[in-house]
Amino acid sequence: MSFSPPAIPSNPPFPILLDPFGRKIDYLRVSITDQCNERCLYCRPAAYRGWTPRPEHLSSAEFIRVVQDAVQAGIRNVRLTGGEPLLRPDLIQITRGISSIPQLHSLSLSTNGTLLAPLALELRKAGIQSINLSLDALDSNLYRQITGGSLDDFLDGFRSALSAGFHQIKLNCVLLRGINERELRSLVHFAAEHQVPIRFIELMPLTLLPEERNDLFLSAHEAWKLLGGDENLSPVPGFTGGHGPARYFRDRTSGAVVGLIGAMTTPDFCSSCNKLRLTADGKLRPCLGRHGEIDLRHEIRQGSGQTENLLRQAVAQKPKDHEFSAGYEPSRPMTALGG
């Protein structure tokens, strides 16, 4: 009697990464630089000079290698962030390399948009499927006060993104009490005019001093009330808009889709967390709102072949929730951690 080996499935099941609390971890945010051309109040402190030396940044080949290993381990969705990722001269090379990885489901990008105009179409052709753009005000003077940048440059980039044909474009606005709450309605109408979702995000303790954070903090619930509450915002339970934690509503006045991200005030905010973060200098962070990093760069440059094991280690170390409300003080600002 002849022996026939068992058939190997042509489509073997994808590996699944589960953390200690049963959450499926399938999303990796990759910061490709800690540098930025803006100086947002909530992201990059005025005195920050702690740029990672360029040799300490992962190379394009190293970023691609890490993402390959991450996908092998179970990551399916990747977002390129910064700092400002458009400052990397090899951004297109990184994008092409990552987008060609088999079994990767989605590749997206977060940017302030001010450098996007000449690059939008090339990024779309290189494999970026969706893009998030930061927009904290439509008044040009207020925009400059918040970001240090130019609203006209943002609008040029935004128009280029619309023309490039990305699968999805989303706008992100950080809520700042006493600064941009009067802009919320204008921002919603701008989103409706261009048929893109807009998300309003609570200020997190990632840059400002505690007393400054208290003065500027505006909750997602207060934003909800400013936009009309139940009388104007109806839940859109089937709308996900990506891989993050936003709760989405339909603004009856304009028809816009409005997302609210309440990291500070939502009791179960972390219950659906599905992400890891990789910093530009090769540190893997299981949680944005807790200390603790795993050094991937050393392992990559030593050629140990342990990258996938370290990814699994990071998943095993994911905490149940963040410590933002327990006096958490970051060791580096948001521009160095990755948006």
What does this entry show, briefly?
With 339 residues, the protein is α/β, with parallel strands linked by helices. The protein has a single domain (27-337), classed as TIM Barrel, CATH 3.20.20.70. It has twelve helices and twelve strands.
Can you walk through the features of this model?
The protein is α/β, with parallel strands linked by helices and 339 residues long. The protein has 12 helices and 12 strands. The chain has a single domain, classed as Aldolase class I (TIM Barrel, Alpha-Beta Barrel), CATH 3.20.20. Strands 7-8-9-6-5-4-3-2-1-10-11-12 form a 12-stranded mixed β-sheet. α1 links the parallel β1 and β2. α1 runs parallel beside α2, α1 packs across α11 and α3 packs across α5. The longest helix is centred in the N-terminal third of the chain and has 14 residues. It starts with 26 loop residues before the first strand and ends with a helix. The relative contact order is 0.16.
